[in-house]
Specification:
The protein contains 8 helices and 12 strands. It is an alpha+beta fold. The chain folds into 3 domains: 72 residues, no CATH class; 115 residues, Immunoglobulin-like (Sandwich); 81 residues, Orthogonal Bundle (Cytochrome Bc1 Complex, Chain D, domain 2), CATH 1.10.760.10. A hairpin with a 5-residue loop joins strand 11 and strand 12. The radius of gyration is 29 Å and the shape is elongated.
Length: 335
Amino acid sequence: MTPPVRPRLLLIIGVLAALLALAGAAAAGNGGFGPTSPASPNAEGIATSFWFVTALVLGVFLLVESLLVVFVVRFRRRKRPRDADGPQIHGSNRLELAWTAGPVLILFAIAVFVFAKLPGIIDSPDATASGGPLRIEVVGHQFYWQFRYPNGVIAIDRMRAPAGRPVVLDVTAPDWDVNHSWWIPRLGGKIDAIPGRMNTTWFRANEPGFYEGRCAELCGAFHAKMLTGVEVLPQADFDEWLTTAFSAQHQADPALGRELWEGVCAKCHGLAAEGGYGPTLAAATLTNRDALETVIRNGRALPGRNVMPSVGRDWTAAQLQSLYAYLEAEFGSQG
């Protein structure tokens, strides 16, 4: 006769207790489990929805696992022979109705809560006396972000925005590029930058500071370099920056040129043009305006390497002039 298998209840309880302790420690430090601390009303709506759904899921998990342990202990085989049938338990209409209706009610509660939160996540709020929402065009390129303000000012990778004012973002990508995804975790959810299509999102950051983000869509070999961020400034400081940038960018602006070089070119070619993913660039090449414009506008197929995308096919003349001014100042003496 086969000896009975003794239950290892203490071992099961110990393993469950250890798992719960580790889960508590992870939750205490967040550990990447939950959303980052929201800094915009739409991000707060996303975080609230996440924690509501998480609480329900954890509640269901604890209920199911607790009942499982109770049933394992209550209806264990004890010392019956292995070939003996256990007690025959027939169905219960009430119990079957409960475990059918319960999940339906839980899903209904999640749907009602999420749909009640959606308008606050999607729709930008009305502005206050600050003059209405600020609208910024966000364009994803391989491998940088370009921001265009209503007055024509351009910024690369680092967006500047006023504190306490709604900012509406029109997010897209050029027809010749690939899909990207704009994501500043503390300022809202992800939004796709799709070639030829305009998607819209928004945020309103009340506290000045810098909010980090990145491209959340695998967009090519240098996807990891496509970092971005939003610098939130007091309204007066933002107005001053926008006015200064507007005046400077009507001519060759070395500050914009530096943003273009560091945010677009240097990611592949190095800050000092020493090479990296892309080849080394000679000073004579960098200061040759015609050759530089040709490769920026049209890109280049490098033998044995990936194709260089046309990083500046849609750049304005002012952008090119600004890049030339910066490169001439940095590399002109090396020619």
